[in-house]
Amino acid sequence: MMDTPILQRVSECFIKAKHSTQKSNQICHLTPWDIAMLSAHYIQKGLLYKKPEPLVNQHDFIENLLEKLKHSLSLTLSHFYPLSGRLVTHKTKDPPFYAVFVDCTIILESNSSMQL
């Protein structure tokens, strides 16, 4: 009998843009077509990477690799801020107004016993 693959959450953190730009604070008015395209649910994407062979210490290697990935993503978010992250909706009653903005993005590290 085959063992069921196990997925284990190792860590989770939020990543924000490394540098705040004036463009990230600008209001972008949306058309009715744009508003219709806003998803009510998060669009979740995941990237799978093959873990490189460690050169020295396994734990230090993984910590260093994760820090580099987090740093790279934070730099990328500075350039593509409106296209990534969580959409947050803010509603006011007086005057009636909806604001949808990008908050941040999440990084989740996990292990799997499944063979790819």
Automatic annotation (TrEMBL):
Keywords, in A-Z order: Transferase
UniProt-listed InterPro entries: CAT-like_dom_sf, Sec_Metabolite_Acyltrans
Keyword Transferase carried by entry: yes
GO molecular function: transferase activity
Protein name: Uncharacterized protein
The organism of origin for this protein: Phaseolus vulgaris
